[in-house]
Amino acid sequence: MSDTSELPPVITIDGPSGSGKGTIARLLADRLNFALLDSGALYRLTALAALEQGADLTDEATLTEIAANLDIRFELRDGEVAALLAGRDVSHDIRMERVSMAASKVAAMPGVRAALLQRQRDFRQAPGLVADGRDMGTTVFPDAPVKVFLTASAEERARRREAQLREKGVSVSLRDLLEDIRARDARDMNRETSPLAPAKDAVELDSTGVAIDSVLQTVLQLVRERIGISRPG
Ligand SMILES: Nc1ncnc2c1ncn2[C@@H]1O[C@H](COP(=O)(O)OP(=O)(O)O)[C@@H](O)[C@H]1O
Ligand SMILES: Nc1ccn([C@H]2C[C@H](O)[C@@H](COP(=O)(O)OP(=O)(O)O)O2)c(=O)n1
């Protein structure tokens, strides 16, 4: 591997759906003034573009072509990161259930993953990057000095999703959510290319029953130890 020690540092946060990756990644990026990569959004954008074009979701060549040619941008709007597809704000659309399902299918395709690899690496910039996903520490940024693998029990992750949906006025049964979470875990962990797994040098954190701020403090401590930076607050 080439020498990457001069590149800006990356903090990778990988783990299953609902473990709190997005929440912790955002808080860390704010605290450290680092850039943020929500890699799941790239798979969601690919899925949305494919659905909108009426593409066959099992046709890897077409899906790879779509991923390679995505016209996407992330912009800060009202304090939130907005995802733009061909200039259109699709932040809401990419969170729809049918897009989540399609995203987990397209994410299993090696061609799609390869097409999105360099785009993800391009997010690396000074003074540093926080990258959230499934394979940030294993495949995309294997040289990252800080790697976290965040977990929580499936039951707790289903309860968190239920609360999140309830807040949006959507009511779903906990049992259905738990089933969905288990199905997605199985698909993410059992695919051949870049399956969900901790990097050998990742620190595993179980956030079951642990408050968000407490998880954040643990990760900040790790950042201080590994790259010697922190911001007060
Ligand atoms: N440690 C925690 N304790 C309780 N709720 C949490 C914790 N971490 C995250 N959450 C909540 O769980 C939900 C899912 O978190 P999110 O960051 O979107 O997970 P992921 O990105 O891993 O799918 C959000 O509503 C978030 O506020
Ligand atoms: N680096 C990544 C990020 C996401 N994925 C997959 C996993 C999921 O099925 C989809 C969407 O990921 P996302 O992190 O947005 O999903 P959750 O919010 O955790 O439910 O993409 C991936 O395979 N590799």
Automatic annotation (TrEMBL):
Belongs to the cytidylate kinase family. Type 1 subfamily. This is Cytidylate kinase. ATP binds at G15, P16, S17, G18, S19, G20, K21, G22, T23. SUPFAM superfamilies: P-loop containing nucleoside triphosphate hydrolases (SSF52540). It catalyses: dCMP + ATP = dCDP + ADP; CMP + ATP = CDP + ADP. It is found in: Cytoplasm. Keywords: ATP-binding, Cytoplasm, Kinase, Nucleotide-binding, Transferase. GO terms for cellular component: cytosol. Pfam families: Cytidylate_kin. The gene is cmk. It comes from Microbulbifer aggregans. It is an enzyme of class 2 (transferase). GO terms for molecular function: ATP binding; CMP kinase activity; dCMP kinase activity.
